[in-house]
Specification:
The complex is a heterodimer of chains A (about 250) and B (about 425).
Chain A (H helix, E strand, L loop, with lengths): L15 H10 L11 H22 L13 E5 L7 H6 L3 E6 L2 H13 L5 E4 L2 H5 L5 E7 L8 H10 L1 E12 L3 H14 L16 H10 L2 E12 L4 E5 L6 E8 L2
Parallel strand pairs in A: 1-2, 1-4, 2-3, 4-5
Antiparallel strand pairs in A: 5-8, 6-7, 6-8
Helix pairs in contact in A: 6-8
Chain B lengths: L3 E4 L5 E4 L2 E4 L3 H12 L4 E4 L4 H4 L8 E5 H9 L3 H4 L4 E3 L1 E6 L5 E5 L9 E5 H13 L4 E4 L4 E7 L2 E6 L4 E4 L1 E4 L6 H5 L4 E17 L6 E7 L2 E11 L2 E11 L3 H6 L2 H12 L6 E3 L4 E10 L3 E2 L2 E3 L5 E2 L7 H20 L8 H29 L4 H16 L1 H12 L15
Parallel strand pairs in B: 2-13, 3-4, 3-14, 4-10, 7-16, 14-22
Antiparallel strand pairs in B: 1-2, 5-9, 6-9, 7-8, 11-12, 12-13, 15-18, 15-19, 15-20, 16-17, 17-18, 20-23, 21-22
Helix pairs in contact in B: 1-5, 1-9, 9-10
The complex binds flavin-adenine dinucleotide (FAD) and S-adenosylmethionine.
The site of S-adenosylmethionine (SAM) has 21 residues of chain A, from helix 1.
């Protein structure tokens, strides 16, 4: 793999301040106790959600070790590949894109050491849209709160989704509770994340996300909250509480 | 999925799997069957030649397999091949020396199932070897020496004596009580010697055993009589005669007739005339418990993690419960696409098993020490103890459920469910 050197050419979704934050933390992607600890802890719940929804949609057996064999996946804003690797293990043909070159390097080195073959690319999703390629699954996890031009970004994600495919998204809600928990709690009190990782003003309400996706031709079919319990140090799905973290599924509207 | 073969640059053949199991004893083979049966690519490496380990002279033990373990064996498809050689235990009678107080466990008290099954280790081994050879996801390498194992943040690499290399995500040490992997990993063990040795053999006897197991606490150590399946119409039992280690060389050296004469008084007259049904073996006994069951991309399973006194017939059963818990943790994680060597998964396994095993190891130890002596006041306490357990049915039922391996937070395989 040649080291990605330059920045993506199509750059409307890029927010340079946001990318700088991730560039500064890139070395820690795979440290389960490092800056990305919350994502590591969150991974089993969202993987189960993705697996179960996708298995139901594509009529696959969730007890199989490779239920995604033959499916193509695009992970937008893949970071170090925390989702790309599990999905590749489940048999999917995975493409991971990110706008930070160091993330792509780290992700590539790690997947190779893990014996997985994943197509990592330094690119934005609008750049990929130019290739006119459609995927069975498009992942848009914990990214919208970091992009510029949310609607344009969502439309580009929609364009990359196959007509019979599924889109998964997750983000933080713009509520006082989210501010309190994710920023004050997560960044200041628990010291999970470096201060300033999240900009509350960039959080996205479910209604805004739903509208933005609709603009990109995607209909939301499922929405659930995801809540963290400090007592058990575990995340779990909670369909009634979308106030802080939430996650959902969409399909191409016909 | 199949273990993948690849050639690296230097033409070295590399076997890529997810789990590398070192040690193809009863625990390693059972674990391998559970994992590979669920589709996980697994390699098992044992330095011993299977042709040797299934020979009648190799291992004369018969194992009391608890019901929970039977369920697991059934669940992973091993039971059918073993069943014809198994003999049910319907009743366990425990007695203290010559005391008349009996502790009596009857299976009808807790349901219709027997309390467990007696199976010769050799039959277990034959069935397991046969089974693993038919599993597509499994690579079985024996006899084979491993020349070097390296565990790192990104995986495990093992170099084999034949020049091949195995790459895995997780190393599972099933290499027995003197586990070299445990030692190389710098994991300490708590060890308590018993100064006892078990002499193991099978005997023919005139009268049927009626599927009753006997355990007699004698001053030198416990004497166990375990009901085996008849052969050629002759009644048989397996004997585990634990006694002071300094006496065993002399007992082992006796000719057959003298050996039977020495053993006979320990039977009482329940089974009639006795005849030795094969060779004798001796196993020195000690308790060992690993200080942790896990390390970087490493888990200890079975005797590598814990070896106990055979007094309660629990050693393999503990290992099988480890397997049920570990296989569930691994397969559940892998069905989410997770790396099976992730530290929090291994921590789940340790949390699930280590405390349970420690309790059982301590209880076994206390019973062994309490009963292996001839001190009068202790004998009274013991007799009262056995009598008390016997008179209080709920207490006895609790003990029985323990003996059958069906208490606690049970993994799916022990509950008889699919992995
Ligand atoms: C007298 C006696 C009676 C018993 N009765 C009962 C009973 O009734 N019920 C019960 O549940 N349990 C019983 N047990 C306990 C039971 O036998 C053990 O717990 C069980 O056999 C342990 O199996 P294992 O696979 O963990 O270890 P082992 O059987 O010791 O297997 C270890 C394997 O690892 C291999 N190995 C070791 N090092 C290496 C290496 N470096 N490379 C490759 N391979 C290696 C060895 O060749 C061997 O095949 C009894 C034990 C004794 C001593
Ligand atoms: C919080 S991380 C989420 C990583 C990954 N999706 C996950 O959930 O594990 C956000 C990622 O989005 C990337 N990112 C931000 N803006 C982007 C853009 N416009 N295009 C592509 N990636 C972007 C960042 O570099 C960072 O890796």
């Amino acid at each position: 793999m040649a080291a990605p050197a330059e920045n993506p050419k199509e750059t409307r979704s890029i927010d340079p301040d946001e990318l700088e934050k991730f560039r500064a933390m890139a070395e820690e992607w795979w440290d389960p106790d490092g800056k990305f600890r919350p994502l590591h802890k969150f991974n089993p719940v969202r993987l189960q959600y993705i697996r179960d929804q996708a298995c139901a949609h594509f009529d696959r057996d969730p007890a199989s070790l490779t239920p995604f064999a033959g499916l193509t996946v695009l992970d937008v804003g893949c970071g170090g590949g925390l989702l790309c690797e599990p999905l590749a293990r489940l048999g999917a043909d995975v493409t991971g894109i990110d706008a930070v070159a160091r993330n792509i390097e780290i992700a590539s080195i790690h997947s190779e050491a893990s014996g997985l073959s994943i197509d990592y690319r330094l690119a934005t999703v609008e750049e990929l849209a130019g290739e006119n390629r459609q995927f069975d699954l498009v992942l848009n996890m914990e990214v919208v709160e970091h992009v510029a031009d949310v609607n344009g970004f969502l439309a580009a994600c929609g364009a990359a989704l196959d007509d019979s495919g599924l889109m998964f998204f997750s983000t933080l809600n713009r509520t006082a509770k989210a501010f309190a928990l994710a920023i004050v709690g997560g960044e200041y009190i628990l010291r999970w994340l470096p201060r300033g990782t999240h900009d509350w003003r960039k959080f996205v309400r479910p209604s805004e996300l739903t509208r933005g996706l609709a603009g990109g031709g995607i209909g939301v079919t499922e929405l659930t909250g995801v809540t963290y319990s400090p007592l058990t140090d575990q995340w779990s799905l909670n369909p009634r509480d979308l106030d802080v973290n939430y996650m959902g599924t969409g399909i191409k509207a016909r | 999925m199949l273990p993948a073969m690849a050639s690296s640059g230097s033409q070295q053949t590399v076997i890529d799997v997810e789990a590398l199991i070192v040690g193809g004893g009863l625990v390693g083979l059972t674990l391998a069957s559970a994992l590979a049966g669920a589709g996980l690519p697994v390699a098992v490496v044992d330095r011993a030649d299977p042709a040797t380990t299934v020979a009648p002279e190799f291992d004369g033990r018969a194992t009391a397999v608890a019901n929970g373990s039977v369920r697991l064996l059934r669940g992973i498809g091993l039971w059918d091949a073993v069943a014809p050689h198994a003999s049910a235990i319907n009743d366990i009678r425990v007695s203290d020396g010559d005391s008349l107080l009996f502790l009596h466990y009857d299976h009808r008290e807790i349901g219709d199932e027997p309390l467990g099954q007696i199976i010769e280790n050799r039959h277990l081994r034959v069935a397991m070897l046969d089974h693993v050879r038919g599993l597509e996801a499994l690579e079985f390498l024996a006899p084979m020496e491993i020349t070097e194992i390296t565990r790192g943040a990104n995986g495990v690499v093992a170099d084999l004596a034949d020049g091949r290399r195995i790459r895995a995500r997780l190393l599972l040490a099933c290499d027995g009580r003197n586990s070299g992997i445990r030692e190389a990993a710098g994991i300490g063990v708590t060890r308590l010697p018993y100064n006892q040795t078990s002499i193991v053999c099978a005997v023919f006897h005139d009268r049927p055993h009626n599927n009753v197991a006997h355990e007699r606490f004698l001053p030198g150590g416990p004497f166990a009589i375990l009901p085996m399946a008849d052969v050629d119409g002759r009644h048989r039992s397996a004997i585990v005669w634990s006694d002071r280690s300094e006496l065993t060389p002399a007992v082992m050296a006796l000719d057959e007739a003298s050996f039977v004469r020495e053993m006979a008084p320990r039977f009482g007259d329940i089974l009639g005339e006795l005849e030795l049904a094969g060779p004798r073996w001796s196993h020195p006994l000690a308790l060992s418990h690993a200080q942790t069951y896990i390390g970087q991309r490493l888990a200890l399973v079975g005797d590598a993690a814990h070896a106990i006194h055979p007094i309660a017939g629990q050693g393999l059963n503990m290992g099988i419960r480890d397997i049920a818990a570990l296989a569930e943790v691994i397969i559940d994680a892998r069905r989410l696409g997770r790396d099976i060597g992730t530290p929090d998964l291994l921590a789940d396994y340790e949390r699930w098993r280590r405390f349970d095993n420690m309790v059982l190891a301590v209880v076994t130890d206390v019973i062994t020490r309490l009963f292996s002596n001839d001190v009068a006041p202790l004998r009274t306490v013991r007799s009262l103890g056995l009598g008390t357990v016997n008179r209080v049915p709920p207490l006895r039922r609790t003990f029985m459920r323990h003996a059958t391996g069906t208490v606690g937070d049970l993994p799916r395989l022990v509950r008889g469910e699919a992995l």
